[in-house]
Amino acid sequence: MEKRACERIPVCFEVELDCCHKVHGTVINNSEKGMFISIKEMCFPFDPRIKVGIPFNEGILHVPV
Known about the structure:
Distance between the termini: 28 Å
Radius of gyration: 13 Å
Strand order of the largest sheet: 3-2-1-4-5
Oligomer: single chain
Structural class: mainly beta
Shape: globular
Largest sheet: 5 strands, antiparallel
Order of helices and strands: EEEEE
């Protein structure tokens, strides 16, 4: 079985994805190289330009993905 390059850390917090419209998801785990976001339902456009809003201190950190 293939071993991952970075350890995954289990977490659970809500994020907001801004694509064509705003969608809420839950980060299930993250690592040095990325994060897994669980989303109930979302259709991605052909040329996705997505931003993830992550709660940070008292505000939201917007990250392009």
